Amino acid sequence: MAVDQEQIHDVPGIRTVTTTEIESFWENGWVHLPQLIDPDLVRALLDRAQALMGPEGDQNEPRIGFDFETTPASQSFRRPSDIDPLFRQISHSAQIGRNAALLLGRDSAHSFFDDILLVKVPLSRRQDLGQALGWHQDKNPTDRSWIYFWIPLNHVGPEQGGVRYMSGSQKLGPLWRGGECVSLEEAHRRAPRLKSCSMSEPMSFKPGDVMAHCSWVVHGTDANVGKESRWVYRPTYFPSDAVYMGIPSETIAERGIRPFEVLEHTDFPAVHRPAPTEVG
Ligand SMILES: O=C(O)CCC(=O)C(=O)O
Ligand SMILES: [Fe+2]
Q1: Quick one: pLDDT at residue 9?
Q2: Which structural domain, as residue segments, surrounds residue 79?
Protein backbone atom coordinates (compact mmCIF):
# COMPACT_ATOMS: atom_id res chain seq x y z
CA MET A 1 0.00 0.00 0.00
CA ALA A 2 1.32 3.45 -0.85
CA VAL A 3 1.71 5.50 2.30
CA ASP A 4 2.44 9.18 1.95
CA GLN A 5 5.18 9.78 4.50
CA GLU A 6 4.48 13.54 4.25
CA GLN A 7 1.15 13.01 6.01
CA ILE A 8 2.83 11.70 9.15
CA HIS A 9 3.69 14.53 11.53
CA ASP A 10 5.96 14.55 14.54
CA VAL A 11 4.40 16.11 17.62
CA PRO A 12 6.65 16.61 20.63
CA GLY A 13 4.93 16.06 23.96
CA ILE A 14 3.65 12.51 23.44
CA ARG A 15 5.79 9.80 25.03
CA THR A 16 6.27 6.22 23.86
CA VAL A 17 4.46 3.45 25.72
CA THR A 18 6.68 1.22 27.89
CA THR A 19 7.20 -2.53 27.64
CA THR A 20 5.30 -3.00 30.91
CA GLU A 21 2.34 -1.03 29.51
CA ILE A 22 2.36 -3.10 26.31
CA GLU A 23 2.35 -6.33 28.35
CA SER A 24 -0.52 -5.07 30.50
CA PHE A 25 -2.54 -4.14 27.39
CA TRP A 26 -1.92 -7.59 25.96
CA GLU A 27 -3.07 -9.25 29.18
CA ASN A 28 -6.09 -7.08 30.03
CA GLY A 29 -7.22 -5.58 26.70
CA TRP A 30 -6.84 -2.08 28.15
CA VAL A 31 -4.11 -0.06 29.79
CA HIS A 32 -3.80 3.11 31.85
CA LEU A 33 -1.06 5.35 30.42
CA PRO A 34 -0.18 8.01 33.02
CA GLN A 35 1.01 11.29 31.51
CA LEU A 36 1.21 9.95 27.95
CA ILE A 37 0.63 13.47 26.63
CA ASP A 38 2.02 16.81 27.79
CA PRO A 39 -0.76 18.29 29.99
CA ASP A 40 -0.39 21.72 28.33
CA LEU A 41 -1.24 20.13 25.00
CA VAL A 42 -4.30 18.50 26.56
CA ARG A 43 -5.43 21.81 28.09
CA ALA A 44 -5.16 23.40 24.65
CA LEU A 45 -7.38 20.62 23.28
CA LEU A 46 -9.94 21.28 26.04
CA ASP A 47 -10.11 24.97 25.06
CA ARG A 48 -10.80 24.00 21.46
CA ALA A 49 -13.33 21.36 22.46
CA GLN A 50 -15.18 23.96 24.55
CA ALA A 51 -15.17 26.32 21.58
CA LEU A 52 -16.94 23.59 19.58
CA MET A 53 -19.38 22.36 22.25
CA GLY A 54 -19.80 25.18 24.77
CA PRO A 55 -18.31 25.49 28.28
CA GLU A 56 -20.29 22.53 29.68
CA GLY A 57 -20.20 20.49 26.47
CA ASP A 58 -23.89 20.46 25.68
CA GLN A 59 -24.33 23.45 23.40
CA ASN A 60 -23.49 21.98 20.01
CA GLU A 61 -26.48 21.00 17.90
CA PRO A 62 -26.12 17.22 17.28
CA ARG A 63 -25.69 16.59 13.54
CA ILE A 64 -28.23 13.85 12.94
CA GLY A 65 -26.69 10.80 11.32
CA PHE A 66 -23.17 12.16 11.85
CA ASP A 67 -22.54 12.60 15.55
CA PHE A 68 -22.84 9.28 17.35
CA GLU A 69 -26.06 8.56 19.16
CA THR A 70 -24.66 7.68 22.56
CA THR A 71 -27.30 9.76 24.32
CA PRO A 72 -28.42 9.69 27.11
CA ALA A 73 -24.86 8.71 28.14
CA SER A 74 -23.06 11.68 26.58
CA GLN A 75 -23.06 14.53 24.11
CA SER A 76 -20.74 13.93 21.18
CA PHE A 77 -18.93 15.86 18.48
CA ARG A 78 -17.53 13.68 15.76
CA ARG A 79 -14.34 14.21 13.73
CA PRO A 80 -13.08 17.42 15.37
CA SER A 81 -9.81 16.74 13.49
CA ASP A 82 -11.60 17.62 10.22
CA ILE A 83 -12.02 21.21 11.34
CA ASP A 84 -9.46 21.89 14.06
CA PRO A 85 -5.72 21.81 13.27
CA LEU A 86 -4.63 20.90 16.82
CA PHE A 87 -6.94 17.87 16.98
CA ARG A 88 -5.63 16.95 13.55
CA GLN A 89 -1.98 17.33 14.52
CA ILE A 90 -2.31 15.17 17.59
CA SER A 91 -4.58 12.48 16.15
CA HIS A 92 -2.41 12.20 13.03
CA SER A 93 0.91 12.29 14.87
CA ALA A 94 3.68 9.77 14.33
CA GLN A 95 3.88 9.37 18.12
CA ILE A 96 0.28 8.19 18.48
CA GLY A 97 0.63 5.99 15.39
CA ARG A 98 3.73 4.32 16.79
CA ASN A 99 2.03 3.75 20.14
CA ALA A 100 -0.95 2.17 18.35
CA ALA A 101 1.37 -0.24 16.53
CA LEU A 102 3.33 -1.03 19.69
CA LEU A 103 0.21 -1.73 21.73
CA LEU A 104 -1.45 -3.83 19.04
CA GLY A 105 1.80 -5.75 18.76
CA ARG A 106 2.34 -5.49 15.01
CA ASP A 107 5.11 -3.40 13.47
CA SER A 108 3.08 -2.74 10.35
CA ALA A 109 1.40 0.40 9.00
CA HIS A 110 -1.46 1.75 11.14
CA SER A 111 -4.11 4.23 10.03
CA PHE A 112 -6.36 6.81 11.63
CA PHE A 113 -10.06 5.92 11.37
CA ASP A 114 -12.16 8.44 13.23
CA ASP A 115 -12.23 10.66 16.29
CA ILE A 116 -14.89 11.96 18.62
CA LEU A 117 -15.40 14.18 21.65
CA LEU A 118 -17.55 12.54 24.33
CA VAL A 119 -18.86 14.79 27.09
CA LYS A 120 -20.71 13.33 30.03
CA VAL A 121 -22.63 16.19 31.60
CA PRO A 122 -23.42 15.85 35.36
CA LEU A 123 -26.77 14.13 35.89
CA SER A 124 -27.72 16.98 38.23
CA ARG A 125 -27.62 19.31 35.20
CA ARG A 126 -28.65 17.02 32.34
CA GLN A 127 -30.49 13.74 33.03
CA ASP A 128 -30.32 13.11 29.29
CA LEU A 129 -26.52 13.40 28.90
CA GLY A 130 -24.83 11.97 31.98
CA GLN A 131 -26.12 8.43 32.34
CA ALA A 132 -24.14 5.21 32.46
CA LEU A 133 -23.27 3.50 29.18
CA GLY A 134 -24.03 -0.25 29.20
CA TRP A 135 -21.53 -3.06 28.68
CA HIS A 136 -20.39 -3.39 25.10
CA GLN A 137 -17.60 -4.13 22.67
CA ASP A 138 -16.87 -1.33 20.22
CA LYS A 139 -18.10 -1.61 16.67
CA ASN A 140 -15.33 -2.80 14.38
CA PRO A 141 -16.40 -3.64 10.81
CA THR A 142 -13.02 -5.16 9.89
CA ASP A 143 -11.21 -8.41 10.51
CA ARG A 144 -8.44 -7.10 12.82
CA SER A 145 -8.35 -5.56 16.26
CA TRP A 146 -8.42 -1.77 16.46
CA ILE A 147 -7.20 0.53 19.19
CA TYR A 148 -9.08 3.36 20.89
CA PHE A 149 -7.28 6.06 22.91
CA TRP A 150 -9.58 7.45 25.61
CA ILE A 151 -8.10 10.84 26.48
CA PRO A 152 -9.65 12.83 29.35
CA LEU A 153 -9.26 16.56 28.65
CA ASN A 154 -10.03 17.79 32.18
CA HIS A 155 -9.49 16.40 35.68
CA VAL A 156 -11.85 13.43 35.90
CA GLY A 157 -12.72 11.91 39.27
CA PRO A 158 -14.18 8.41 39.87
CA GLU A 159 -17.66 9.92 40.31
CA GLN A 160 -17.68 11.52 36.86
CA GLY A 161 -18.37 8.45 34.75
CA GLY A 162 -15.06 7.05 33.63
CA VAL A 163 -14.75 3.98 31.46
CA ARG A 164 -14.50 0.56 33.17
CA TYR A 165 -13.29 -2.67 31.63
CA MET A 166 -13.79 -6.41 32.11
CA SER A 167 -10.12 -7.31 32.14
CA GLY A 168 -9.13 -10.10 29.78
CA SER A 169 -12.53 -10.20 28.06
CA GLN A 170 -10.90 -9.48 24.69
CA LYS A 171 -9.71 -13.10 24.75
CA LEU A 172 -13.31 -14.19 24.11
CA GLY A 173 -13.34 -12.41 20.72
CA PRO A 174 -16.46 -10.70 19.37
CA LEU A 175 -19.40 -11.67 21.62
CA TRP A 176 -22.39 -9.75 20.29
CA ARG A 177 -23.11 -6.96 17.85
CA GLY A 178 -20.48 -4.23 18.16
CA GLY A 179 -21.79 -1.15 19.95
CA GLU A 180 -24.83 -2.89 21.47
CA CYS A 181 -24.97 -1.92 25.16
CA VAL A 182 -26.42 -4.34 27.71
CA SER A 183 -26.78 -4.70 31.48
CA LEU A 184 -24.21 -6.65 33.50
CA GLU A 185 -26.74 -9.43 34.01
CA GLU A 186 -27.39 -9.71 30.28
CA ALA A 187 -23.65 -9.64 29.49
CA HIS A 188 -23.13 -12.53 31.92
CA ARG A 189 -26.07 -14.40 30.43
CA ARG A 190 -24.70 -14.02 26.89
CA ALA A 191 -21.12 -14.88 27.80
CA PRO A 192 -20.87 -16.61 31.22
CA ARG A 193 -17.06 -16.55 30.98
CA LEU A 194 -17.25 -12.79 31.58
CA LYS A 195 -18.04 -13.57 35.23
CA SER A 196 -14.41 -14.58 35.68
CA CYS A 197 -13.08 -11.27 34.30
CA SER A 198 -12.22 -8.78 37.04
CA MET A 199 -13.69 -5.33 36.57
CA SER A 200 -11.36 -2.32 36.56
CA GLU A 201 -11.92 0.11 39.41
CA PRO A 202 -13.24 3.66 38.89
CA MET A 203 -10.16 5.88 38.52
CA SER A 204 -9.03 9.49 38.62
CA PHE A 205 -7.35 11.16 35.67
CA LYS A 206 -5.20 14.24 35.37
CA PRO A 207 -4.90 16.02 32.01
CA GLY A 208 -2.30 13.99 30.08
CA ASP A 209 -3.35 10.57 31.50
CA VAL A 210 -4.79 8.27 28.84
CA MET A 211 -6.56 4.91 28.67
CA ALA A 212 -6.23 2.69 25.62
CA HIS A 213 -8.35 -0.33 24.78
CA CYS A 214 -8.58 -2.89 22.00
CA SER A 215 -11.60 -3.94 19.98
CA TRP A 216 -12.95 -6.93 21.83
CA VAL A 217 -12.57 -5.87 25.45
CA VAL A 218 -15.99 -5.49 27.09
CA HIS A 219 -16.42 -2.09 28.71
CA GLY A 220 -18.96 0.48 29.85
CA THR A 221 -19.12 3.71 31.83
CA ASP A 222 -20.65 4.82 35.09
CA ALA A 223 -22.98 7.82 35.29
CA ASN A 224 -21.60 11.29 35.99
CA VAL A 225 -22.81 11.92 39.54
CA GLY A 226 -20.13 14.60 40.03
CA LYS A 227 -20.39 18.35 39.62
CA GLU A 228 -18.34 18.98 36.48
CA SER A 229 -18.65 17.79 32.90
CA ARG A 230 -16.35 14.95 31.93
CA TRP A 231 -14.53 15.74 28.69
CA VAL A 232 -12.99 12.89 26.67
CA TYR A 233 -11.34 12.89 23.25
CA ARG A 234 -11.23 9.47 21.61
CA PRO A 235 -9.32 8.86 18.37
CA THR A 236 -9.37 5.36 16.82
CA TYR A 237 -6.76 3.51 14.75
CA PHE A 238 -6.56 0.27 12.79
CA PRO A 239 -3.85 -1.85 11.17
CA SER A 240 -3.71 -0.54 7.57
CA ASP A 241 -4.02 -4.06 6.14
CA ALA A 242 -7.43 -4.60 7.85
CA VAL A 243 -10.15 -5.78 5.49
CA TYR A 244 -13.74 -4.46 5.54
CA MET A 245 -16.05 -7.36 6.41
CA GLY A 246 -19.26 -5.75 5.20
CA ILE A 247 -20.74 -4.96 8.62
CA PRO A 248 -22.92 -1.90 7.96
CA SER A 249 -20.78 1.21 8.39
CA GLU A 250 -21.72 4.54 6.87
CA THR A 251 -18.21 5.86 7.46
CA ILE A 252 -16.75 3.10 5.31
CA ALA A 253 -19.50 2.66 2.73
CA GLU A 254 -19.79 6.37 1.91
CA ARG A 255 -16.09 6.37 0.99
CA GLY A 256 -16.74 3.74 -1.67
CA ILE A 257 -14.97 0.88 0.11
CA ARG A 258 -16.63 -2.46 -0.54
CA PRO A 259 -16.70 -5.65 1.52
CA PHE A 260 -13.39 -7.53 1.53
CA GLU A 261 -11.40 -4.51 0.39
CA VAL A 262 -8.76 -2.90 2.60
CA LEU A 263 -9.72 0.43 4.18
CA GLU A 264 -7.62 2.58 1.90
CA HIS A 265 -8.78 6.20 1.66
CA THR A 266 -7.25 9.65 2.10
CA ASP A 267 -9.57 10.17 5.10
CA PHE A 268 -7.93 7.15 6.76
CA PRO A 269 -4.27 8.16 6.45
CA ALA A 270 -1.47 5.95 7.72
CA VAL A 271 0.01 7.52 10.85
CA HIS A 272 2.64 4.89 11.38
CA ARG A 273 4.72 2.73 9.16
CA PRO A 274 7.66 0.58 10.13
CA ALA A 275 11.18 1.70 9.34
CA PRO A 276 12.27 0.30 5.96
CA THR A 277 14.42 -2.82 6.29
CA GLU A 278 17.93 -2.63 4.86
CA VAL A 279 18.34 -4.69 1.72
CA GLY A 280 21.63 -6.24 0.59
O1 LIG B 1 -16.52 7.31 27.89
C2 LIG B 1 -17.42 7.26 27.07
O3 LIG B 1 -18.26 8.14 26.97
C4 LIG B 1 -17.50 6.11 26.11
C5 LIG B 1 -16.49 5.08 26.45
C6 LIG B 1 -16.45 4.00 25.43
O7 LIG B 1 -17.30 3.17 25.35
C8 LIG B 1 -15.33 4.00 24.46
O9 LIG B 1 -14.45 4.86 24.51
O10 LIG B 1 -15.34 3.12 23.59
FE1 LIG C 1 -16.90 1.78 23.73
Answers
A1: 83
A2: 5-272
